[in-house]
Amino acid sequence: MVKVGIVGGTGYTGVELLRLLAQHPGVEIVTITSRGDAGTSVCSMFPSLRGRVDLEFEDPLASNLRSCDLVFFATPNGVAMQQAPELLDAGVRVIDLAADFRITDVAEWEKWYGMLHACPEWVASAVYGLPEVNRVAIREARLVANPGCYPTAVQLGFLPLVEAGLVDLDHLIADAKSGVSGAGRKAEVSSLFSEAADNFKAYGVPGHRHLPEIRQGLSRIAGVGVGLTFVPHLMPVIRGIHATLYSRIKEEADYQSLYELRYANEPFVDVLPAMSHPDTRSVRAANTCRIAIHRPQGGDTMVVLSVIDNLVKGAAGQAVQNMNIMFGLGETDGLWQLPVLP
Amino acid sequence: MVKVGIVGGTGYTGVELLRLLAQHPGVEIVTITSRGDAGTSVCSMFPSLRGRVDLEFEDPLASNLRSCDLVFFATPNGVAMQQAPELLDAGVRVIDLAADFRITDVAEWEKWYGMLHACPEWVASAVYGLPEVNRVAIREARLVANPGCYPTAVQLGFLPLVEAGLVDLDHLIADAKSGVSGAGRKAEVSSLFSEAADNFKAYGVPGHRHLPEIRQGLSRIAGVGVGLTFVPHLMPVIRGIHATLYSRIKEEADYQSLYELRYANEPFVDVLPAMSHPDTRSVRAANTCRIAIHRPQGGDTMVVLSVIDNLVKGAAGQAVQNMNIMFGLGETDGLWQLPVLP
Amino acid sequence: MVKVGIVGGTGYTGVELLRLLAQHPGVEIVTITSRGDAGTSVCSMFPSLRGRVDLEFEDPLASNLRSCDLVFFATPNGVAMQQAPELLDAGVRVIDLAADFRITDVAEWEKWYGMLHACPEWVASAVYGLPEVNRVAIREARLVANPGCYPTAVQLGFLPLVEAGLVDLDHLIADAKSGVSGAGRKAEVSSLFSEAADNFKAYGVPGHRHLPEIRQGLSRIAGVGVGLTFVPHLMPVIRGIHATLYSRIKEEADYQSLYELRYANEPFVDVLPAMSHPDTRSVRAANTCRIAIHRPQGGDTMVVLSVIDNLVKGAAGQAVQNMNIMFGLGETDGLWQLPVLP
Amino acid sequence: MVKVGIVGGTGYTGVELLRLLAQHPGVEIVTITSRGDAGTSVCSMFPSLRGRVDLEFEDPLASNLRSCDLVFFATPNGVAMQQAPELLDAGVRVIDLAADFRITDVAEWEKWYGMLHACPEWVASAVYGLPEVNRVAIREARLVANPGCYPTAVQLGFLPLVEAGLVDLDHLIADAKSGVSGAGRKAEVSSLFSEAADNFKAYGVPGHRHLPEIRQGLSRIAGVGVGLTFVPHLMPVIRGIHATLYSRIKEEADYQSLYELRYANEPFVDVLPAMSHPDTRSVRAANTCRIAIHRPQGGDTMVVLSVIDNLVKGAAGQAVQNMNIMFGLGETDGLWQLPVLP
C-alpha cells in the first residue's frame, strides 16, 4: 500500500482526491492537513464521505507528512514551493496540484503569478504530469507538476495536430469553457450562485495564467514556439471543461485516423467517431478526456472538441493517474468509475 | 456470475442500471432490450458508457431474456405486468422498477394508474422491495416490486416513528421535492430545461400515484391505516429527493437514539448527528439515504429530513441492492461508489 | 417627483431597487451610498443599468441623504437602527429593508439577531410594511419596516385562514423554499454556485430569524398567539420563494371564495383557480404574490401554495409599493412590469 | 394604436412577444392564433400574463388577422411562407420571426431547410430586419424577415470590422453559445432539463442553418463573399447568446473607437469600455446587445465578445423594434425595460 498524505484538503481538489483515494485499492491515506480546520473531522465538512473516510484535518506542522511515500499538495498557488522542498529532501515524493512547478521559465512564472519563486532549483527537476506526453519521465519523478485543467483539455485536443505539424502553429485558437468549480471553494462574489447561474461570460481575455502553461506545453510538443489565442469562459456547470480548438490546415491528412492512432493505447483519452459532439457530462466524475474532430464545410479550418471533468482529469484524477505511474501501480487503478449521467 | 437482462434500457433508470451493473463484480449483463431502438449500440445513445458496455439494444422478442437468472424491467408502468409473467413462469426472477406490482389492492392500483391490471394473480406474490423492511422476504422472492422514489425517501424517514407508534398516525405530512430526472427521459414540455430551470413548483397536490404506495407501506409498518398528506414538488436539480416530514408527537422519547438504533445495521441508511441538515448532493450517485431528526423550539411537531438520489436508492441502486439480497451476494456489492460532491 | 436616497446599494436588494426606481415615473434618485465602494460608478458594478442610471456610489457621510423625501436602507441588519434616527429626526421618511424595526418586542429581536438594539424608541412607532394588512398605517408612517421575504410569502398565504379563524392556530406549518439570492450578495461558501447548484437542503430548522416575525404577524392578525413550525430550504433558483402551508381545518367553509374575496382588491395578490399550482417563475421579476388553495383528498388538512419573487414582493418591490402608498402615488406605479417567463 | 396579430403564440417567441406587446403603449393586440390550442385562454398556458392579457388562442382560419395592421409569425419554419402571402396581398404588413424569408438565394434556403419554398416571389421583396444595417428599408417594408438569434449576435459583433475591411474576411470564426430557449418550446429529449442542465456541448459543427444567414449578412456588409467557421454550443442557461468572434487583423486601427463610433447612435447596441467582458445576464430580458473588443497580448488576432438575449434582441424584441420602425413609432417604445439581474 502506498502511504499518501494530502496537504490542504478543504478545497474541491482536496475532497475529490479523497473521493478517489478512498476507493483506491492500493493506497492508504495517512494524513490530511489544513491549517485553518485542524481538529475538524473530514466528514463534518464533507458529509458525502461519511462512513468511508475516518480522518481529522491535522495541523501541517504536527502531522506525519514525512512518513508518507507521497504527498499531494492541493493548496493555493505558492504553498507547495514553500513546503514541498523539505519533504522532497526527506525522500518523500510530491505531486503539486497547483501551479508552482508547471512553468520552467521562472521569470515567466513570477510575472504571471505575481510572486517570487521560493525554490527555483526544484522547478528544473519537476516533471510536467501529463501522462500522454511524459509517461516515462513521470515514472521516475520525485516531483510532479500536475497540469492545470484548461491546459489538460487544450493540450490533449491539439496534441496530434501539433505533433504532426499539420496546422499553422502561429495562430492556434482555444475557446475554452469551464465549470465554476474550477475557481475553487473560495468565498468570492463572482462564484456565487446568484452571479454564475443562468449566466455565461468570458474572462481573462487579455491574459490568463494558463496561457503560458499551454504555450509551453504545445511548444515542447511542436519543437518550436507556438502562437496561441486563449479565451476562457465561465459556464453555469459545476464540473466540466469544453475546449473548442481552431487551427488552419497546412496539409491534407486523415485527421480522424491521426487522432485514433495517437490515442489508441491511452486508457483515458477517447476519440469519438467522426461527426460527434462530446458533452461535458459524458465525462462527469470520470478521468476521461473525450475528443471529436471536425472540418466544417470541408474548409481549411480544423475544429477539435475536447472535454474533461476539471476536478478529475483536470486535477485530482490526473494526480492519481500520475501516482499510479510513479509507484508502478496499474495506471487505471482507482480511476475506473463510470461517468455519472444524467 | 448472475446473468441479468434489462427490459427497456433507454430511460434514466435503464442507463443508471447499466452504470451500476457494469461496475458490479458478480454480474454479467446478458441482454438489454428496447423495442424502438433495437440494433442501436448502447454507447451511441449513452457515450458515458463507451469502452465499458459493449451491447446493442435488442428487440425484446428476439432476445434471450429467458436464459437470464434475473430480469430488470425499467419500463413505463403497465409493461412488466404484460411481459413478466411468462418469464416468471419460465423460472426467471424479476425486479420491476415500475409500479405494476407495488399496490396490493388491485382495484386501488387500477384507479390510480388508469388501466386494468393484466396479472392480478402475481400482485399477491410480489414482494415490496424495501430491504430495510422486507429483507427476509426479498431473499426468496421470485418477483420484487421495486419501490418508487418518493415512497423510499418518505417511508425510510417515517419508519422508526411509525414502528414505535410515537406520533399521531392520522395526520402525517410529507412535503417532498424531486429532481427532474424523476419524470424520466420522456420528451415532455414540463420537463424542458427552459420550463424547469430556475423554477420551483408543487404538482399533483390533489393526488399523486405515490400517495397510495406510501400509505400502504406506512400502514403495514404501523399495523393500522395511516392518514397522510403528500405534496410533491419539482425542483431544478437533476438527481435527488428531499423529503421534509412533519408529525405530531404523542409521547416523549429519545428520538435521535430511536433512529440511530433502528438503522444501526443498515448499510445504506445514515442517521446524521442531531441538528444536521442533509443536502441532496451528499448522496448524489450513491445508494445512501441520509436522515436528520429535529424538534423545532422543543414543540410537539417532529421534523424529519430524508434525502436520497432518486435514480439510485430511489430506483436502480435499490434494484441492485434487491438483486444482491435475492442472489446471496454481498448486499453492498457494486454499490460502494462514493457520492459525487461537488 | 419624490426625491429618494438609497443607503447600501451594492447588494441584491440595492440593485433591484435601482432597477425598479429607474423605471418609476414619479421618482428621482438623488443619491446612493456605499461606504466601501464610494467613487465607483453604479454601472461599472451593475452593467445591466448602463445608459439608465448615471450615479456613483457616495460615502454616506458626504452624501445629501438629508435632502431626500425618503431614504431606503438596503443594508445588513443593524445598520438602519444606527443611521436612520438622525434622518428621521430631520424629517426624512425611511423604509428599512432589513430587520431592524420588524419585531416589536425588542428583547425578542435582540435574542434572534444577537445584538443590542440601538434605538428601541423608534421600534414602537415603526409600521410593518405589509400593505395587504397595514395599508392605512403605512400611508402616514414616518418609518416603515419592510417585511422579510419568507414572512411576506407565508403571511399572505395564511392570512385569510387566520383572519377567519377557520384552522387550528396552534399548529401551523410553513415549509418554505427560497432562491439563493435571498442570502444576499455576500461572499460565503454556502452560497457558491458549486455548493448550491444541483442541490437542495433545509437549513435553520432549529430556529430561523423569520420565525418570530411570521409568528408576530400572524398572531396580530389572529388576535391570539399562534403556534408555527417553520422550515426554510435553499433551492437552486436565483429568485423565488415557494411556501407550502399546512393547517388543520376546524370548520367547513368555501375556502376558494374566502381567498378570492379577501384579495379581490389587492393589485399584487393573485388567487389562482382551484386545483392550480403556481410556479415561482410566474412571478419572476414582478411584484406579484400568486396563491393556490388545496384540500387534498377532501381531508381535514388545508394546503396553501404561495409564491413571490424574494427580491421584488419579498424586498425591493414591496418597498416601492410602500413608498407609493406613503407618498400618495398610484400603488402600482413603477411596478407594472410583467414577469419574465421563461 | 397599431393593431397587431400573432400567429403561433404558444412558443417562447410567442409568449415573449406577448410580454413586450402587452406593455407597449402604441399597440393593440387584436388576435393571437394557435391551431392546436384554439379556445384556450392565453393565461391558462402562461400564468405570468394573468391580469394583463385577456385573450384566447383563436383558430387561424376563424380569426380576423386580415383586419390587422401587422401580423407577427411566431411559427415554425415553413408556416409563414404558406400563410403570409394572402395577408400581404390584403395589405397587411408581416414580420416573420422564423427563417422563411431570411435567405435570398432560394435554392440555398431549400437545401438548408429541407423543403421547397412556397412563395419564392416574396423572398426578393422581403427586408432583412436588422435595424443597425437596414433601418431605412425596414421603414417601408411590407414583409420583414426577422433575423435569427445567432445571426444577430454574430453580425452585430463583426459589423464594424467587416464594414471597415480591417480583417481577413476569408477566415472569420464565430464560437457561439446559446441558452436552451433557443431550441423553442418543443418537447424534445435533447432540450430536457436532465439532458441540458449541468452540461455543455457543441452541436451542428458540420453545418447549422444559421451559417448561410450569417454568411449572407456579412458578405453584403463586406461587399464580397466572406469565409466563416461557425460553431454553435448549447449552454445550461435559459436565455442568452454569447458569441466569441475571432478574426485576423490585416491593418492597424483604433478598434475601440471604431466600434464606439459605429454604434454611437444605436439605442440597442452598447459598446463596453476596453478590457470588458459582458455577461449574458447583463442583457437578460432586454433588447440590448453588449459588445467588448479585445486584442490579446497585442497579437494579430481580434477577439470580439457579443451578448444578447436570444428571445429579445434575438427574436421578439427585435421584431418589436422592427414594428416600431415600420409604423413610425419611437424605436425604443415598449422596449425600455431594464435587464433583470441577478
From TrEMBL, chains A, B, C, D:
GO BP annotation list: L-arginine biosynthetic process
InterPro entries noted in UniProt: AGPR, AGPR_AS, AGPR_dimerisation_dom, AGPR_type-1, NAD(P)-bd_dom_sf, Semialdehyde_DH_NAD-bd
EC number(s) on file: 1.2.1.38
Annotated compartments: Cytoplasm
GO molecular function annotations of the record: N-acetyl-gamma-glutamyl-phosphate reductase activity; NAD binding; NADP+ binding
Keyword annotations: Amino-acid biosynthesis, Arginine biosynthesis, Cytoplasm, NADP, Oxidoreductase
Domain Semialdehyde dehydrogenase NAD-binding residue range list: 3-141
One GO CC term on file: cytoplasm
Residues the record marks as active site: C149
Recorded metabolic or biological pathway in which this protein acts: Amino-acid biosynthesis; L-arginine biosynthesis; N(2)-acetyl-L-ornithine from L-glutamate: step 3/4
Biological role stated in the UniProt entry: Catalyzes the NADPH-dependent reduction of N-acetyl-5-glutamyl phosphate to yield N-acetyl-L-glutamate 5-semialdehyde.
Family: Belongs to the NAGSA dehydrogenase family. Type 1 subfamily.
Listed name of the protein: N-acetyl-gamma-glutamyl-phosphate reductase
Lineage, uppermost ranks: Bacteria, Pseudomonadati, Pseudomonadota, Betaproteobacteria, Rhodocyclales
Gene, per the UniProt record: argC
